[in-house]
Amino acid sequence: MKQTKMLVNWLVACAVAFAMVTSASAQSAKERSGKVVKIKGSARFSTGNSIWQPLSVGTLLKAGALVQTAKDSFADIALIESDVVQPPTASGVGAAGNKRPTTAQDLVRLSEDSVLAIDKLTVVNTGAEKVTETQLDLRSGRILGSVKKMAAASRFEVKVPNGVAGIRGTLFAISADGVVSVGIGQVVISWTKADGSTGTQVVSEGWQFDVRSGELTKIPDVILNDLRRLEVESLAYFTAPTTRITVDQTILFVSPN
């Protein structure tokens, strides 16, 4: 209980700090993008008016975009700043000759039969640090995420139909029905209970929480393995074209292409 209260207070303080930063630096706020770096199977996206287009590697998604994956499919979306615009190739060079980013980016994997809306992607350069705000709306299905360490005033939130999860530099999985799994770090999930009251739960590394049952359990191995693979692949996207990493004594040679 004490840990939950401390973390909730911290989230409130971050929200206040972010509001102060964005108010003082509104003119320097810039839009970020979601860049598709990998697709398995098929997916589509819409920017409004129910007009759908096929999703492909290199597609840039702005705030307001809606993404949907088909059965037996997934899409990996890197959340980037506007100056990184070219999809990486096997040589580590973008289509227009740009080098692959060498620093880690936030990465979201949209699992099969899922729908995700990108509500907000911004960055404010305060001079001392970059403050980002990320708001995603998971309407159905599941996402996995690898989020790098953020500035204190930054926010990364994932809305689900019955609540919202606050994420802080972590490796996680969230389903639209309110199941939160954490491989690294912590996630705070707040949701509306059947009686109308608000529930809040801190989910720490190695644990899974289900808002429907209120149960906190050890993260299943199958989900933990999915998260570990996502972490490995996220490193490969933004560093060398082929990365050799050992996971559970298995050597993986991961290429983003």
Q: How do you describe this structure in short?
A:
The chain is an alpha+beta fold. It has helices spanning 2-24, 221-238; strands at 30-40, 43-46, 52-54, 60-61, 66-69, 74-81, 106-110, 115-125, 130-140, 142-146, 155-160, 163-175, 179-192, 198-204, 207-210, 215-218, 243-247, 250-254.
Explain this structure.
The chain is an alpha+beta fold. It is built from two helices and 18 strands. It has helices at 2-24, 221-238; strands at 30-40, 43-46, 52-54, 60-61, 66-69, 74-81, 106-110, 115-125, 130-140, 142-146, 155-160, 163-175, 179-192, 198-204, 207-210, 215-218, 243-247, 250-254. Strands 1-6-7-10-12-11-9-8 form an eight-stranded mixed β-barrel. A two-stranded antiparallel sheet has the order 17-18. A hairpin with a 4-residue loop joins β15 and β16. The protein is globular. Mean pLDDT is 81; it is low at 16-27, 83-102 and 242-257.
Protein topology:
Elements: H1 2-24, E1 30-40, E2 43-46, E3 52-54, E4 60-61, E5 66-69, E6 74-81, E7 106-110, E8 115-125, E9 130-140, E10 142-146, E11 155-160, E12 163-175, E13 179-192, E14 198-204, E15 207-210, E16 215-218, H2 221-238, E17 243-247, E18 250-254
Parallel strand pairs: 9-11
Antiparallel strand pairs: 1-4, 1-6, 1-8, 2-3, 2-5, 5-8, 6-7, 7-10, 8-9, 10-12, 11-12, 12-13, 13-14, 13-15, 15-16, 17-18
Q: What's the count of strands?
A: 18
Radius of gyration: 18 Å
How far the N terminus sits from the C terminus, by CA atoms, comes to 45 Å
Sheet of most strands: 8 strands, mixed, barrel
Oligomer: single chain
* Poorly predicted runs: 16-27, 83-102, 242-257
Estimate percent helicity: 10-25%
Q: What's the rounded overall pLDDT mean?
A: 81
Give the DSSP E fraction (strand runs of 2 or more residues): over 45%
How do the SSEs run, as a string of H and E? HEEEEEEEEEEEEEEEEHEE
Number of helices: 2
Assign an overall shape: globular
Structural class by secondary-structure content: alpha+beta
Give, in spatial order, the strands making up the sheet with the most strands.
Answer: 1-6-7-10-12-11-9-8
